[in-house]
Amino acid sequence: LAVAVLVLRALPAQIKGTKWLTPAQQDEMAALLVADDAHRQAGSWREALTHPQVILLAIQYFCISLGGQAISFWLPQILMGSGMSASTSGLFSALPWVLSAILTPLWASHASRTNERYWHAILPCVASGVCMVAGALMLAQPIVAVVLLSLGVGLSSMAVAAYWAIPRVHIYGA
């Protein structure tokens, strides 16, 4: 919360007040914002929330995040059920998130470099689903299951990194 307050105080309210952009960059950013504003459409909250693209994007994000939420909730129980102690299962439960922390910035960087978002969101989603299903089928072998489920969570996090650039292309005025 303190960091949020500091950031709000440190950032200028207008592009013209930025110290880290040259005057040419400030003009370019101002022009981009004006062009973006030209696409905005007035409407109500009801129209926005019932728009087919908004609903589709919400369903997509729900599906992307569902696997990670399920793993957060069930992986410790699965591991303890396989005979691991509480402390060991806690350590193994952190593996998906460590993998996510490593893979997500790399994938987001690649998506930015190639300026491609759709396949950077779709491919990890499909691969994540395959890993999650395979991990669920391999519960009798806990180490294999943890590796597959961890990879599934890592892939899901990679999809999220690319996903958040997609709604902006389809929805204006947000």
Give your account of this protein's structure.
By secondary structure, the protein is mainly α. It contains nine helices and no strands. Helix 4 packs antiparallel against helix 5, helix 4 runs antiparallel to helix 8 and helix 7 packs antiparallel against helix 8. It starts with a helix and ends with a helix. The model has no long low-confidence stretch (mean pLDDT 84).
| H-E string | HHHHHHHHH
Work out the helicity level: over 70%
In round numbers, the mean pLDDT is 84
Task: Report the structural category.
Answer: mainly alpha
Name the beta content range: under 5%
Sheet of most strands? none
User: How many beta strands in the DSSP annotation?
Assistant: 0
Shape label: elongated
Write a compact overview of the structure shown.
With 174 residues, this protein is mainly alpha-helical. Helix content is 77%, strand content 0%.
Sum up the structure in keywords:
single chain, about 170 residues, mainly alpha, about 75% helix, elongated
Protein topology:
Elements: H1 2-10, H2 23-38, H3 45-49, H4 52-81, H5 86-93, H6 95-114, H7 118-137, H8 142-163, H9 167-170
Helix pairs in contact: 4-5, 4-8, 6-8, 7-8
